[in-house]
Amino acid sequence: MKFTPRALLLKNGKEVILRSARISDTPALIQTIKNYLADSTYIPQTPEEFTMTLEEGQQWIASFITKDNSLLIVAEFDGAIIGNIDINGHQRQMMAHTAVIGMGILSEWRNTGLGTLLMREGIAWAKQQPILELLWLQVYPENDTAMALYKKMGFEESGIIKNFFKHHDRYYDNLTMSFPLKQHRIKTPL
Ligand SMILES: CC(C)(COP(=O)(O)OP(=O)(O)OC[C@H]1O[C@@H](n2cnc3c(N)ncnc32)[C@H](O)[C@@H]1OP(=O)(O)O)[C@@H](O)C(=O)NCCC(=O)NCCS
Question: What mean pLDDT, rounded, does the chain reach?
C-alpha cells in the first residue's frame, strides 16, 4: 500500500482518518474542493473555474495512485472528506525529484491542527520515496494560517513574484517556499 491509513486526533478532540484518495472518492472530493474554494481568499481559483468532471476527477486521482513521486491524501470524518493535501510530482525527467504541494480544508475544520497533520504525513511519506528530493509550494504572504503552518513545518522562502495575483481590486504577491527532503546526491559545481 502506498500510504498506510491512520486515525489521528485533532485539537478539537475529533478523530479523523488520513488515507490515500481512491477513485471512488471522486464525487465527494470534487464537492469538498468546490466548497473550500468558495470561501478561500487565498487559493487563486474561483469555484466556477473549477469545472472538473467526474471523468477528469477519476483520471486526476488515478494519476496520484500510479505516479511514484505523487500522493493525494484525504482527511475523512464520519465518512465525509473534509480536506486534502496533494503532492504532485513533476512528470519531466529533469524535475522528477520535485513535487509541488496543494492543500485545502473545509472552513469549519480549519485551525484544528488538521493542516499540520496532513502536511506532517505528506512530508514523512515524501521522505521515504527514493525519487523525491524537494517539495515546494506557492502561497500568498497574506495567508497567515498557511504561512504559520509552512514555516512551522520547515519550509523556507525561496522567492517572490510581485503582483502575481489580481483580484478584489488589488494585486497580491506570489511567494514560493521549498523544503529539501534529502542531501543533494550529486555535487553542485562551485
Ligand atoms: C491553510 C490550511 C490548509 C491550514 O490548515 P489548518 O488546519 O487550518 O492549520 P493548522 O490548524 O494545522 O495550523 C495552523 C497554524 O497557524 C496558526 N495560525 C492560525 N491563524 C493564524 C494567524 N492569523 N496568524 C498567525 N498564525 C496563525 C495556528 O495557531 C496554527 O499554528 P500552531 O499549530 O503552531 O498553533 C487551512 O487553513 C485552509 O484550508 N485554508 C484555506 C485554503 C488555503 O489557504 N490553502 C492553502 C493555499 S497555499
Answer: 96
Cell of 20: 490515500
Give the phi and the psi of residue 117 in degrees, each rounded to 5.
-65, -45
Does residue 104 sit within a domain?
yes
Give this prediction's pTM.
Answer: 0.97
Four-residue CA torsion sign, 80, 137, 1, 93? positive
pLDDT band of 143, cuts 50, 70, 90: very high
Compute the distance from residue 85 Cα to the ligand 1 centre, in Å: 13
- Residue 72 counted as domain residue: yes
Q: Ligand 1: residues within 6 Å at CB?
A: 36, 40, 42-43, 103-105, 110-116, 139, 143-146, 148-149, 152
Number of domains into which the chain is organized: 1
Residue nearest to atom 25 of ligand 1 (CA): 144
Q: Is residue 113 part of a domain?
A: yes
Pocket test for ligand 1, best of 39, 103, 149 (most atoms within 8 A of CB): 149
Measure the CA–CA gap between 70 and 63, rounded to whole angstroms: 8
**Percent over 90 (pLDDT), the chain:** 94
CATH of the domain at 109: 3.40.630.30
- Residue 60 contacts residue 21 (beta carbons within 8 Å): no
Domain contains 169:
no
State which residues form the domain around 124.
Answer: 6-134
